[in-house]
Design brief:
37 helices, 8-stranded mixed β-sheet, 8-stranded antiparallel β-sheet, alpha+beta
Length: 1177
Amino acid sequence: TTENIEDDWLTLGTDGRTGDKIRTDNGGGGGNGTKDSGPAKTVVCPWGYAALLDRRFEEAIDHFLASVVSSPSTSIPIYPDDGRDDDGIGDMYDGGGNDDADDAGDLRAFFAGPRRTSLVSDLSFNHLDSATSNVTKLTSDMSFSQYSRRSIDTNLSSFRSMLDGEDIATTTEEEEDRRECLQLPSDATSSALARAYRELAFQTLADQVKGSVRSHPGNEWMFRLEGARDQPLRWSEELMPPTMMMGEEDGKRKGSGPTLLERTPVRMDLSHSCWSDIFFLGMDYPEAARVINCSVDLAVMQGRQGGSDDANAKSIPTPPIECKLQLTTANPGTIRLTSVDLKCTVLLTQVSQAFDYGADYLGLLKAGIVASGIVPPGLEECCRADGKDAPMKDLLSAMMPMNRTDGNDDGCCRYGLELTTNVHNIPKGSRLAVSTNLLGSIIAACMRATSQTSALVGPLLEPERRLVAARAILGEWLGGSGGGWQDSGGLWPGLKLIQGVKSEEGDPEFGVSRGRLLPRHKLFDREEAPEELLAAMEKSLVLVHGGMAQNVGPILEMVTEKYLLREEEEWHARHRSMEILDELLIAFRQSDIKKIAGLVTENFFGPIRTVIPWASNLYTETLITRVRERFGDRFWGFCMHGGMSGGGMGFLFDPEAKADALDELGSIMLRTKGDMESSLPFAMDPVVFDYRVNEFGTVGELCVGEDGVETSGQAAEGDEWQSCAPGHELDELLREKGFDMKEQEQIRSDIRSGLIGLAKNRLSLNSELTDVTPDDVIIIDEDSISNDARKLGLDALKAGSVGVVTLAAGVGSRWTQGAGVVKALNPYCCMGGKHRTFLDVHLAKNRKVSADAGMTIPHVFTTSWMTDPPIRSYVESLEREHRADDTPIFLSRGQSIGLRMIPMVRDLKFLWDEQSHQRLDEQAEKMRESVHSALMGWAQSNGEGADYRDNTPSQCLSPVGHWYEVPNLLLNGTLAKMIRERPQLKTLMLHNIDTIGANVDAAILGSFLETGSTLAYEVVPRCIDDMGGGLCRVDGRPRLVEGLALPSEDDELKFSYYNSLTTWIDIDKLLSKFELNRNDILEHSEKIPHAINAFSRRLPTYVTIKDVKKRWGKGQEDVHPVAQYEKLWGDMSSVKGIECSYFVVTRQRGQQLKDPAQLDGWSRDGSAAYLDSICSW
């Protein structure tokens, strides 16, 4: 995208104080900054951005660094170290102890940086030396408060520059003033550098893991294979079908050999240890990579949850994972893969099909046969290099035992392979490492079948388990399932300590990382884990699945990022978790279950929540509270399994209370889920498990005849499937809402004919798009706002002439990856000692401004048919409990709904192929391409442009864009009601539900009133992740442009400001643009609908693609791309005759939270603290 760019002069941003444009020579990066009059101006270096998307991270960093301007684009004051220890932290931050430093010339005085732990270089751990004193343990009452810690000053502290060769010149006047000004790159360039460095760090770590997996002993040969007939593996004689040993005439009969059955338990994580089993952490800090892990058999407590006594009698814990392998003449020359629990089967006839992991639900089974060596991964490269595929029959023929003949002299293979898996009654999201242990079970069975183990049946030997575990890691990398190195613990028996190991000479990791990829598994002996311990644990611990199935990926990335940053809190919490593990080992020896319960509870509320607060959630903590209220002292503790809570969890009870807990825990979880179902992403109803410790690990059996053989059409015993078919409910809802099917048919016709679509969203290529000038914007900061403006705004607040409109009609498809919850009610953070929803936060800001002004501010939440009932119920509960204070709250229900459609394949190709996206790691990119291909096939098979109906109504219907939210105030009488109650109402502040830093600021309000504009939009300085449009000049006129409307994606790199959507509205002036007035609103005039319809035709209609989840089975979820149409509020700025102003506000005020992955950065960069400061709880 950057090859045709010829102008080397790049605008990097604006001076934060003057608004002047700055330029620099992109090739050298060291020219003197001057005003730029050239035509090619960019905010983000296009060469760097293109390299960043293409995963050329080091090249991107070079470009971004070269584009850093020598003249200031922004600056912050830095106070040199005065030698005083006045921050309450210690000399390790203040420069104490460095007597040789020159106070006046010490470089620490000129660089800003966050505080880092003094333990950064000490990667050794001794529990006697760890900094326990810096962390206060929780009391036995399991308080939800965070760990107490030393007060850390949030101001920027000074530290020595890490930039090699940096030369900072200072003047005598600066030294005398003892105050310096540190010159920094623009926000855009700084954020681009940060993104590139982060991606480079993660790619480096991923490459280390990938290299270790490929070079692990026993795996290398699979990558060196040059052709299907070079396959060195041979089937075990015992598995060959009987017909293969008969004459040619008998051999024509169909038959099957014995069935190899692998039964595998899952693993239960007892210690957690702050995610120390993440590959990156274990390879960098093996001393801290230690977990206690137990292999368990499971049964769902069916009878306890309303079933029959017979059902309860059948609930005997057994290994929940089964893998069956059989050679058969039924489908010669093929591999048939079947998942009984997923009700899916596929027949592989070509070698390349085994590497198409995203084509169906069986990607994990394909990864298993590849990682086991049956279809060696090296064949994928051979097929790609030769440009032609290899028949699967060639590979299977080569695997015949040496003393057997396939009778394939005629080129035909006489047998095929059938691999069938079944996961019994474990829902997705159990956090019991089902996918990893299923992969291990498949690999173990395949290795047994090809004589890669010493025995065909029975448990595996220790070296064999380690090789299976290594190949399971390979399979996860291939199939994209993810996981840590403790997840394959089900291959081993019983209770064990899994710990990282330092790399040594001869290891593939030696010289690359401090630790090995694979940990060491130490099985506990009877002294370390007495028999009475396991019996006592089974009598006390209740395993559950809470019903939530969330993507743990962002959590694991947050953990890795915090580890790399060596943050003080994270570091001490990690060391405390290591101490807890040592204390657990002592408690195990003593068989002290109550002590174990206290330690795992402290681990959750202490180290885990300190490192990643979002590992917990309101649902989990409410469950703990209700269980404690019900069982009192008989409830001993809580244990989180896996990466985050809400799915797999453990509750420990007094043994005398366990029977009652098994009876009642399911109903407690179900009631709690019902209370929060609209606000949190649940995939299924909660489940209670019974379990027992598995003392064997994965075990192979040989079944002759039909024993234990299930066909692809059979389902697991007791399998209950949840249907998503909406039946007539959707049609009835459409009729109730007066849905216009004629308009739907017209839109469908336009989409299918190509009149509208993603490519048609764009402005004309003849449009001239340029960055705005300093005269187009008003900088909002302490220095730019006059006292008169502040007074004007404060007077308006005191007069009660201002209201707030919060857009809450959406379901946050990006926030929950299409789960369809009410985003306004999602409890996304903890503030003021409690979990807070987006709605809570906005009311808290309103409460503080109202108290400061001495006048309440009416607050409107716009809703849709999807969000109105739960939001209305929530607001009513606030009013009942007097938590809303005196704030006048209005709900504006929107009536317009849209029926989603199956997207056109051309739109999907435009979205995925023609628009720029971050390129993924090589294997992940292959997986994404495979998924995209499958989804395009789904669109074709379901009918492009057809109505999307195969889901629940809430997922089939959509809002029609936030432009309609303001007209809805007129249509449903909400604005009329507000004016009747407060006739002096003149101004509204409209903002999105996730623009959480926006409040009714008196200074900004006064500035808006001074402009005399109809609308004033708030924008923020652009950062690298702010892609999706922004403020620009279109044919010389400043306006907001949506990203999907840009003629070229390169245009976005020119824009200095990103749209926050927060808008100040002059009510009467806006009504006049609709040719309406206050009397029309108060009288509910018939003119209103006609005026809105006429005005709406002046705005563009966009076709967009959204992801929605379709739930099925036991917590399974499909994510489908669907098409919907929208009109957007920002396009009001494009309407001629509407006077618009544009305010540049701080990022803390204008930032939008669209993805949970933003939360950790949001909490660390000062945004969370800022939000707390403008709220009254």
